[in-house]
Design a protein that fits this description.
Layout (H helix, E strand, L loop, with lengths): L20 E5 L11 H7 L3 E7 L1 H11 L9 E5 L2 H4 L5 H15 L5 E6 L1 H5 L4 H12 L4 E6 L9 H11 L11 E5 L4 H14 L4 E4 L14 E5 L5 H9 L3 E2 L7 H16 L3 H26 L3 E4 L6 H10 L4 E7 L4 H8 L8 E5 L1 H11 L3 E4 L1 H9 L4 E3 L2 H4 L8 H19 L1
Parallel strand pairs: 1-12, 2-3, 2-4, 4-5, 6-7, 6-8, 8-9, 10-11, 10-13, 11-12, 13-14
Helix pairs in contact: 7-9, 10-11, 11-17
Length: 429
């Protein structure tokens, strides 16, 4: 993007589905979907997440969430013992007891999620049936739902998708003749508030969010609902909402100036708002974002970057870094490619981008070692080994935990990639 805010022509826009995809099937290295609890339990403030899993699951959550020992967290693990795994104990009886004790101790819980893990999936513990049974026992006092975060079935961010899909089935019907905009995918509260102000200035409303800040306040859905995805990993949730009559708005994701302007513009177009009004409403935030982004563009321009598959944010982030920061894309690896959710993003990638779906870890690491990009975005477990080989890395998990959507966060997003490069430069002096 040039300094006057004009974006270059998308080199692949005419045939976004023509971009070749290299599919890899081999050893993967990603977090399981249980990691989604770390940000979901902060977002949905009246919910509790009970993982039915092993001590390893418990250790993952404790380490990833970083909860202080004197805090009262809104997640826990019901640890399956050897007798449970061997079929020598009735897991359902034990689960009923644990849930009863939890709800007696924590009467503030409005929605309880039973979260499946690898161990519970292996022993075929039917958590959906258990949730129905326990809900009936609570006689409506607590909503109890089930979803899977198992690493057998989900990758890092898919845990949110399965959670939101469970919530989608509980959403009330939107009255006939009414319309609303539903933004799907977790956003930091500050980002949500910023988008609310922009939607209000555009004249779009009512606007609802999934997940909501309170599970007791689920938004309605129906034939008058327009879906706008804020995260690229909510494909199953979108499909569940479309089955209930909602219409998906195709748009890039609100990362950077270009993505946010196109995202808001797509919503405005679907709502029947004049494009001139969108230009007027977004002019000031775009100008602020341009000023903030300029310093990081100077630091990132010309640098080469590779993404290993992990968060599912790789494609829109690659688009942002290439088109707005001038970085060269060595490789964009994604855990899976949902073309319906990525249609608008694929057309904005350069035609020569190497896009890989899935992972063959050893082959991918060999390519990274041979091409030696200036920056490699990867999971926590791969960062230290690559750093030991004198390769600069960026933790992909930080891109989930940090507010990075919208105009006001465009410079913050760029800084996340400039920071490890600056650290490398300082260490080399």
């Amino acid at each position: 993007m040039s300094g006057d805010g004009v974006f270059p022509e998308a080199p692949g826009a005419a045939g976004c589905n023509e971009l070749p995809v290299q599919r890899e099937r081999g050893q993967r290295h990603v977090f399981c979907g249980l990691a989604g609890i770390v940000w979901l339990h902060r977002k949905i403030q009246d919910a509790f997440f009970l993982v039915i899993g092993s001590r390893t699951c418990a250790h993952l959550l404790q380490s990833a969430a970083g909860v202080m020992i004197f805090a009262e967290p809104r997640f826990a693990t019901a640890v399956l013992q050897d007798r449970d795994l061997a079929g020598m104990a009735d897991c359902n009886e034990e689960l009923d007891r644990v849930v009863a004790e939890l709800l007696a101790r924590r009467p503030d819980i409005g929605t309880l999620f039973l979260v499946g893990s690898c161990p519970s999936e292996v022993i075929k513990l039917d958590l959906e049936t258990a949730a129905e049974r326990l809900s009936e026992a609570q006689q409506g006092r607590v909503r109890i739902l089930a979803y899977t975060g198992s690493g057998i079935e989900t990758t890092f961010t898919q845990g949110e998708d399965t959670c939101l899909t469970a919530l989608a089935e509980q959403m009330p019907d939107l009255p006939a003749g009414e319309r609303s905009l539903l933004v799907v995918g977790s956003l930091a509260d500050i980002v949500e508030d910023q988008f609310n102000r922009l939607f209000e200035e555009l004249g779009i409303g009512p606007v609802h969010y999934l997940p909501p800040r309170s599970a007791a306040e689920l938004p309605p859905v129906g034939s008058g609902t327009l879906l706008l995805a804020a995260q690229p990993f909510v494909g199953e949730t979108a499909a569940a909402l479309i089955k209930r009559g909602a219409t998906l708005i195709k748009a890039p994701y609100p990362f950077g100036i270009e993505g946010t302007r196109a995202w808001l513009g797509a919503a405005a177009d679907a709502w029947g708002i004049d494009p001139a009004r969108v230009d007027a409403v977004t002019a000031a935030p775009i100008a602020r974002a341009e000023r903030g982004l300029a310093r990081y563009r100077e630091q990132l321009e010309g640098k080469r970057i590779a993404f290993l598959p992990d968060s599912q944010l790789e494609i829109p982030l690659g688009r942002f870094l290439h088109r707005e920061c001038g970085m060269q894309l060595v490789e964009i690896g994604v855990p899976y490619l949902d073309r319906r959710m990525m249609a608008s993003e694929l057309g904005l990638l350069p035609r020569d981008a190497r896009l890989t779906e899935g992972q063959d870890l050893e082959r991918q690491l060999d390519r990274i070692r041979e091409e030696r990009p200036d920056l490699t975005v990867c999971g926590l477990g791969l960062a230290n080994p690559l750093e030991a080989e004198d390769l600069t890395t960026k933790w992909s998990i930080e891109l989930i935990f940090t507010p990075v959507h919208g105009f006001d966060q465009a410079a913050d997003l760029a800084e996340l990639f400039a920071r490890p490069l600056n650290r490398r430069r300082r260490l080399a002096i």
